[in-house]
Amino acid sequence: MGLYRQDGTRITKAAFPAAALDDPPVRITEDVYVSEPYGRGDGQPEGSKRFLLYPAGTIVARSAVGRLFTSASIDSISPAKGPAAGGTTITIKGADLDGVSAVTLGGAAGTDLHIRSATELTVRTPPGAAGAVPVELADDSGAVSKAEGFTYETTAGS
């Protein structure tokens, strides 16, 4: 058996056209599935079906695994204002929110985090000083922040 270039010249083992990569292979240790919503629907996780993405034993490049964990993004926060005492349940809409593990407002942790879908989550605001604060989401890909994403008011509705 021989290997050849497009122009017909033979390729030797020493001259094989490949480059070393800093992307080590990893072995998948258990079956990994991907979830997709049924049809258009509401995007809720309950309305989804799962497909086998990688069976156990599959070898893939580490970068391929990294691409599976996309960073969340924030499109909107509603309501955008609430009392400095905290306790406002806000809805954050965006993309890839189903991997969010924590939400902070001005550095303080929000409570009662509920992932509604890949595009929506709710969280209760902690107490904060009056003024606009950044809203930060933590997920497997790192953190994403919306500067001045929520404004604490001295009294509700001010």
Notes on the structure:
The chain is mainly β and 158 residues long. It folds into two domains: 22-68, no CATH class; 73-153, Immunoglobulin-like, CATH 2.60.40. The chain is 4% helix and 49% strand. It has one helix at residues 62-67, and strands spanning 3-4, 10-11, 25-27, 32-37, 48-54, 59-61, 73-78, 81-83, 89-95, 102-105, 108-109, 111-117, 120-124, 131-139, 142-153. The strands form five sheets. Strands 8-15-14-10-11 form a five-stranded mixed beta sheet, with no helix packed on it. The chain has a four-stranded antiparallel beta sheet with strand order 7-9-13-12, with no helix packed on it. Strands 1-2 form a two-stranded antiparallel ribbon. A hairpin with a 2-residue loop joins strand 10 (102-105) and strand 11. The longest helix has 6 residues, at 62-67. The radius of gyration is 23 Å and the shape is elongated. The termini are far apart.
Low-confidence stretches: none
The structural domain count equals: 2
CATH class placement of the largest domain: Mainly Beta
User: How many E-type strands?
Assistant: 15
CATH domain topology of the largest domain? Immunoglobulin-like
Count, helices: 1
Overall average pLDDT: 84
Structural class computed from helices and strand pairing:
mainly beta
Helix proportion range: under 10%
The CATH homologous superfamily of the largest domain is termed Immunoglobulins
Measured by DSSP, the beta-strand proportion falls in over 45%
| Strand ordering within the main sheet | 8-15-14-10-11
InterPro entries: Ig-like_fold, Ig_E-set, IPT_dom
Protein name: IPT/TIG domain-containing protein
Domain IPT/TIG: 71-153
